């Protein structure tokens, strides 16, 4: 029963991530600039993690803190969180949510490539098969062969850039201060992302400042920087990383469904087939190998 509850929490975290793109695109359609959305998201998220980290540290004196030498590394790698957010949100200006999320999910095979290069180790066969299936699913999910499909490749390039940046942040998360508390690690990474975003947008944030921007920024912070980390930190340790990754892939269909319901974006049957194909790839990659429990 505990595993079911943990799985539900991870699923809710994935659903929370899934509504992000639709919320951003809806805000953009209302005339709210991306600058205020991203700054508000990271600022509110950082303040939340700052408070939560302080509470966690006081309640548990034996908690594994972040070593001084690791703080600067986490801050530096946190820049990739900022670039991921900026590139992903900018891609939504040019392409539908249903395609933007698929571009972001190219991080699946990009992570495999980066991992193989940095570790100088050939990936397992199942990982290579899964990565290939992702590419096949991408061709279907973007419906790229449709006669009337006009894809703005500016959005595609921005989405791929977000995927590359996201893969970099995943690499850092798996290698820097891995024994430290996740909330404390996230605090420094989000601070790095916030710093980069503020420098990137600079004066534009003030030019586009509005109450509506703060409201939507707070919503995005809730769905992207507050709920998922809490839900994942509770659920994933109980069900394992492999199953956690599989359940977390619910973000893809949730993103598309929310875009259909809220934005009225059309999605062809072949695109759903592509989504299903990508989900199958995630399952294959995260299946336990022989000899693993």
From TrEMBL:
This is DMT family transporter. Residues 1-21 form the signal peptide. GO terms for cellular component: plasma membrane. Residues 7-141, 154-286 form the EamA domain. It holds the Pfam family EamA. InterPro entries: Diverse_Substrate_Transporter (IPR051258), EamA_dom (IPR000620), EmrE-like (IPR037185). The keyword Cell membrane applies. Its main location: membrane. The keyword Cell membrane applies. The chain crosses the membrane at residues 31-53, 74-91, 97-116, 128-145, 151-172, 184-203, 209-231, 243-264, 270-287. Keywords: Cell membrane, Membrane, Signal, Transmembrane, Transmembrane helix. It is a multi-pass membrane protein.
């Amino acid at each position: 029963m505990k595993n079911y509850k943990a799985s539900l929490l991870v699923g809710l975290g994935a659903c929370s991530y899934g509504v992000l793109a639709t919320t951003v695109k809806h805000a953009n359609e209302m005339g709210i600039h991306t600058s205020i959305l991203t700054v508000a998201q990271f600022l509110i998220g950082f303040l939340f993690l700052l408070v939560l980290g302080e509470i966690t540290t006081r309640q548990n004196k034996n908690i594994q803190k972040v070593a001084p030498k690791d703080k600067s590394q986490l801050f530096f790698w946190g820049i990739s969180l900022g670039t991921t957010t900026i590139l992903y949100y900018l891609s939504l200006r040019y392409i539908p949510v249903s395609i933007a999320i698929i571009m972001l999910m190219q991080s699946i095979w990009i992570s495999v490539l980066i991992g193989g290069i940095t570790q100088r180790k050939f990936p397992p066969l199942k990982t290579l098969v899964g990565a290939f299936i992702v590419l096949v699913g991408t061709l279907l999910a973007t419906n790229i062969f449709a006669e009337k499909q006009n894809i703005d490749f500016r959005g595609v390039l921005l989405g791929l850039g977000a995927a590359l940046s996201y893969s970099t942040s995943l690499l850092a998360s798996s290698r820097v201060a891995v024994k430290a508390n996740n909330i404390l690690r996230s605090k420094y990474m989000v601070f790095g992302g916030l710093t980069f975003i503020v420098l990137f947008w600079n004066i534009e944030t003030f030019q586009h400042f509005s109450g509506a921007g703060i409201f939507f920024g707070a919503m995005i912070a809730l769905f992207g920087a507050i709920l998922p980390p809490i839900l994942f930190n509770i659920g994933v340790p109980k069900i394992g990383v492999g199953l956690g990754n599989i359940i977390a892939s619910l973000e893809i269909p949730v993103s598309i469904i929310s875009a259909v319901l809220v934005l009225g974006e059309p999605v062809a049957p072949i695109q759903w087939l592509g989504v299903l194909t990508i989900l199958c790839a995630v399952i294959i990659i995260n299946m336990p190998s022989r000899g693993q429990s």
